[in-house]
Amino acid sequence: MDPGVKDDKTRETGGRNSFPLILFFCLLNIGGLLVPVTGFALKTCRVSYNIAICVKMKLIAVPQDIPSTVKGFDLSANIIARVQVTDFQNFKILTQLELNRNRISGIDNGAFANLISLEKLNLNNNKLVGLGEDLFHGLSNLTELRINGNRIQDVASSSFRDMKSLTFLDISHNKLHQITKVHSILQHLPHLRELNIKNNGLTTFCSWELTNSSVELKYLDLAQNPIANFSITADVFPNLTWFNIGGSPGKQQMIWDVHNKTFFNRVSTLDISGLQMAFDDMKTLLEIVNSSLTSLRMNAMKRGLTALINISCTIPTMSRLQVRRNKLSYVSSDLFKLCFDVTEMDLAENKIKNIPDNAFRSLQSLRILSLSRNRLSSVPAATRKLPSLTELDLSFNNITKLGCDDFANQTKLRRLNLYGNSISALQECLFKDLIQLQVLKLQNNRISNLNSAFQNYLPNLRQLLLNGNELTEIIHGEFSGLKSLQNLSLLGNKIKTLEEGCFIGLTNLTDILLQNNHITEIEINKSCFNDLINLRRLDLRENHIKYENSSSLPHAPFSQLSRLESLAIPSQHGKGKSQLPRNFLQGLTNLLFFNSRNIQLLALHKDMFNDTPQLQTLDISSNELMDLSPDLFSPIQNLKSLYISRTSLRSLDYLTGSNLTKLEFLQARKNEYSVISEEIIKSVPGLVYADFQGNSFTCDCDNAWFIKWVKNNNETQVFDAYNFECNYPVNLKGMKLLELDIRSCSVDVEFIFFISSTCSILFFMVVSFTYHFLRWQLTYAYYLFLALLFDTKHKNKRAPNQYDAFISYNTHDEAWVIRELLPKLEGEQGWRLCLHHRDFEPGKPIIENITDAIYGSRKTICVISRRYLESEWCSREMQVASFRLFDEQKDVLILVFLEEIPTSELFPHYRMRKLPNKRTYLSWPRAGEHTELFWEKLRQALQTRDDRAEDCFLLTVLDGRQ
């Protein structure tokens, strides 16, 4: 239906596409269930369909734990007073933001600057008094802005500067008062198409105050403004097609000052409801739109309605007329005499009691007629004289009886609304001529008997609404004439009996609603549903269906409904506990949704779902289930949503081993779950939303894993997790579960890894430092330790002084030892010398030979050369000899240098560098030609006995004579 004849409320809410996040995206197709798409634990909100929903949470500030990946953010109906610059700085892909119905009185500059993807912003019903400079900075992609119902008085010239993409603006119900403020808005909005500024206290509307306004504007709503002078002298809205100028409050008449008939020559929909204007001005207004008008609203007019109808009906293009709330208790025969071309007429809410038979004689082109919410006591005979009528609305009148001729000859009627009357019975002949009728609404009457009204006629009827009546039974073949029926609503009656064959003939029926009746298991056991071979949805909620045990029924009630997708049987009335027969769902091979909430079930047989392999949503909440078998879920591995709240179950162990790998939604509120283990959560790896609200959690280490998982997992949203309370132990009762300190419950692997890594790095650094700077000192210490070890072991095993001296030398210096040293000391002086190549015991470890030789000799003579310093074994001999020197505190070490070695070359050999400063040493190169003195000094050194190590016996050949 065109906007011209829509209900007023459609436009009053602000345009064709109402913004409240599309009712949270219709709250799902089946059962009104929300299916979330992402995972995390939030303190106050929940996320569904990538929309963060924080409605009515009593929030005083924007929550900061909302993931930045959401595309919608609904904060409506809270008590937020100010929008701060940090509130939305991370939401770069947000497209819809709802802030309506808060207490917002201030918005920081730049508060929306980062919302670069935002397309729709709702600030309705807050306490804003002004729109400051650059308030909407950054919103370059915004297309819809709603700020009605505030207290806005001032609009800064740059407020809307960034909104180059804005197409819809609703700033109604504020206090702008002056049209110049509207101009400051419009000058920055080149693509604006719809503008709502109703009820802003505008007293004048002059075109010279709107220069350079948007040429793309097509919708303008100026209703409910006390405009005294409407003057247009320039074509400021050349493309305007929808114009509402009605509803001016007060008694002052508007002066219409528009003389150029081309200024509004494109307006096709005009609303002048409640407009107070001189008749001549009204006539001028209608003449201006004479060439384009197709839809006219004249609701709640004060005077001159008949004349205005006659004038408007002479407009050749006018086809839709809405005349509501005009107190037309009587429709005269001449009221519509000129409305030959009108195709849609809305006369709702006029208190009409009588309509003469010839009242509509001129409306031969009328296709849609609404007489809703009047005081008619019967179907007006005037409606039968409308040969083109396709839709007739007689809802909410005082009709008590329908006759066989009430719809006579209306063979083109396709839609008939009779709901909200007091009709008590139908007649078999009632619909005999309605061969094209597709929709029949009879709900909320007092019908107790159908009287075969649907057995022979209405071959094209597709939707029949009989809910809210007083039917007590459905007899055999009651709807047999409805071959095309697809939707049948019988909810809210008093039906007790469904006779066998009661739905015979309804082979095309896809939806049947039978909830809130008195149907019992006795009738449902019969084959009343066998003919519904194309049924997709069956709702049996709020009835009296109960079974005493889970034994198989002789005849499964739905065995022929192989195409059924949705079955609901919850909230069955009556006393006593119940069961479900194990074959209750037999034949439902395509069932997707099963709801058995609140039927006082004690158990579910493990074979209950053997015949429903496609099941995706299961609701068994509000029953007295004590235990469930994991085998129950084995046949339904495609299950995505499970509702199992308010039962007597004490654990979720039934999920372990259930193989529900595709489960995404789990609602398990208000049970007796105390511990939720890791095994349970890992058994449902696809879970994206979990609701464990109101359980009796134990606050100890048994729940440590669950607490950590709730806080850290990024895959599963745990609803209201920050409000979970401890029930045990008693001393922690009432404490928040997530506040429990679990650090003592487990080893922090990450911390251990950190410590290990740190220690490894430090060890590597110490080793590197030692190798580069202390390796020689450590080598010395190592050998000193070995010397100590072997000294302790061997120093008392041999008789001391077996030799006079042990000669420590490198094999490269062996020639000097054999030719020079040995002949002098053994041959001439008679000393007993120990040489490793001659005197070491074969087969004994070398280190033991070295130690025995050093401790078995009075002295040790080290023959030092560069080769000696580079030799590992020479170094060991030096280390052992040094240890003996320090251990016994005797001068047992004699150094003989075969080469001149600078001190700098001795530096790496820490002990060698220091020994020449404190110990006896001889230099062969310095002896030169005075070798006899050299050998004499060496002889003297060998002769000394029991001298203290610190008594330095200077034998060093350093003077100039050497």
TrEMBL record:
Q: Does the keyword Kinase apply?
A: no
Q: Which Pfam families match?
A: LRR_8, TIR
Q: Where in the cell is it found?
A: Membrane
Q: What Gene Ontology biological process does one annotation of this record name?
A: inflammatory response
An example of a GO molecular function for this protein is: signaling receptor activity
Q: Would the keyword Transmembrane helix be found if you checked this record's keyword annotation?
A: yes
Q: Report the transmembrane regions from the record.
A: 21-42, 751-774
TIR domain location: 801-942
Q: Which PROSITE patterns match?
A: LRR, TIR
Q: Name one GO cellular component term.
A: plasma membrane
Query: What membrane topology does this protein have?
Result: Single-pass type I membrane protein
Q: Which InterPro entries match?
A: Cys-rich_flank_reg_C, Leu-rich_rpt, Leu-rich_rpt_typical-subtyp, LRR_dom_sf, TIR_dom, Toll_tir_struct_dom_sf
Annotated signal sequence range = none
Q: Which UniProt keywords apply?
A: Glycoprotein, Immunity, Inflammatory response, Innate immunity, Leucine-rich repeat, Membrane, Receptor, Repeat, Signal, Transmembrane, Transmembrane helix
Protein name according to UniProt: Toll-like receptor 22
